[in-house]
Design a protein that fits this description.
It is an enzyme of class 2 (transferase). Belongs to the methyltransferase superfamily. YrrT family. Could be a S-adenosyl-L-methionine-dependent methyltransferase. Pfam families: Methyltransf_25 (PF13649). Keywords: Methyltransferase, S-adenosyl-L-methionine, Transferase. By secondary structure, this protein is α/β, with parallel strands linked by helices. It contains nine helices and seven strands, in the order αααβαβαββαβαααββ. It has a seven-stranded mixed β-sheet, sandwiched between helices. Strand 2, helix 5 and strand 3 form a beta-alpha-beta unit. The longest helix is centred in the middle third of the chain and has 14 residues. The protein starts with 5 loop residues before the first helix and ends with a strand.
Length: 212
């Protein structure tokens, strides 16, 4: 994910769990049904799992409990340390969607939550091509992330955040690279995946892509 956001991830490491638990009013709608979203991603995972953007390890925990072998990729040192405290046995490597250490184990599912929007659309396409090359036939990409159905919908949500005085959320929505659902569909299909979308809350979508 965009390395330009690593400082932000470092700052979030100590407060992220409180935020996703609904204790920060600004982000309550973003992370609405957070546990359900993680469960959905976990339920779609198969085989060995590569997780991008481990964060504090919340999805990792569900994947490990489900019996998956998990390799985590996380660019933020503070986030890696937070996740390692929760799960000392979890393999976490320094890296991001575009650059990560060579993997020795075969991977069948690639997962991520609330991280892919830190890439530009061009970078998303490069990353998806890399996923295709990494996965076997019928391998899967299972993401949950913020996306919008249209530019109009995005502008409306930004205006609502402004009206509520949610300045941090407005800053995120206007400086990070939140994609359109249609753009994601095109990027996955152009790179050899069949993809479906399921809206999980006002902001987040479940994205399940299978290598054709």
């Amino acid at each position: 994910m965009g390395r330009e956001f690593v400082d932000l991830f470092d700052k979030w490491a100590t407060s992220y769990d409180d935020t996703v638990s609904g204790h920060d009013q600004q982000y309550r709608d973003v992370f609405d049904k957070y546990d359900t979203i993680l469960t959905e991603v976990t339920n779609h995972a198969e085989g060995n799992v590569l997780e991008f953007g481990v964060g504090t390890g919340n999805l990792s925990e569900k994947l490990l409990k489900a019996g998956h072998h998990v390799i985590g990729i996380e660019p933020s040192r503070a986030m890696r340390e937070a996740a390692a405290l929760k799960h000392p046995s979890l393999i976490i490597k320094d890296g991001d969607f575009l650059s990560y250490p060579k993997l020795e184990e075969p991977i069948f599912t690639i997962v991520s939550t609330f991280a892919f929007h830190h890439l530009t659309d061009e970078e998303k396409g490069i990353a998806i091509k890399g996923f295709y090359d990494l996965l076997p036939p019928n391998g899967k990409v299972v993401f949950a992330d913020t996306a919008f159905e249209s530019e109009i919908a995005k502008k409306q949500i930004i205006q609502e955040a402004k009206d509520h005085g949610y300045n941090d959320l407005v800053y995120d929505l206007t400086t990070e690279y939140y994609p359109m659902v249609g753009t994601l569909q095109t990027l996955f299909e152009e790179n050899g995946f069949y993809v479906t979308f399921k809206q999980m809350n006002k902001f987040a979508w479940l994205i399940v892509a299978e290598k054709e």
